[in-house]
Design a protein that fits this description.
CATH class: Alpha Beta
Number of strands: 3
Distance between the termini: 22 Å
CATH superfamily: Vaccinia Virus protein VP39
Structural class: mainly alpha
Keywords: Methyltransferase, Transferase
GO biological process, one term: methylation
Number of domains: 1
Number of helices: 5
Radius of gyration: 15 Å
CATH topology: Rossmann fold
Order of helices and strands: HHHEHEHE
Pathway: Phospholipid metabolism; phosphatidylcholine biosynthesis; Lipid metabolism
Organism: Brassica napus
CATH architecture: 3-Layer(aba) Sandwich
InterPro entries: SAM-dependent_MTases_sf
């Protein structure tokens, strides 16, 4: 089974305001790295790998399946799912800062992950 979405961009007066807030205030690069030190490698919010493991087990993932992660943070859960369950993960996020960190982390790892961001 495949699910397809049709997206339509809607213009607004302050089109990129929220993204700018995320990148310049809430999630500056050094702030993201501080969150990661608190919550564990690859994570910027509570729960970390323990909660991710508990949640992902309930998904009953099979090798080759595809997962869409909306609001992926810095990809800790995505790396985990790809490595442990051999699934293909696509992650999207509003903040460019997250994207830069995840791309760097993917380049630094030796895992043969199926990740796209």
């Amino acid at each position: 089974m495949q699910i397809c979405w049709i997206w339509q961009k809607v213009s607004s007066v302050n089109e990129r305001g929220f993204q700018r807030f995320l990148d310049n205030v809430q999630y500056k690069s050094n702030g993201i790295l501080c969150y990661e030190r608190v919550f564990g490698q690859g994570f910027v919010s509570t729960g970390g790998i323990e909660t991710t493991n508990e949640f992902v087990e309930k998904m009953n993932l099979k090798p080759g399946q595809r997962v869409l992660d909306v609001g992926w943070g810095i990809g800790g859960g995505d790396f985990y799912m790809s490595q442990k369950y051999d699934v293909h993960v696509v992650g999207i996020h509003l903040s460019i800062s997250f994207g830069c960190i995840v791309v760097f982390q993917k380049q630094q790892t030796s895992c043969l992950c199926h990740l796209a961001f």
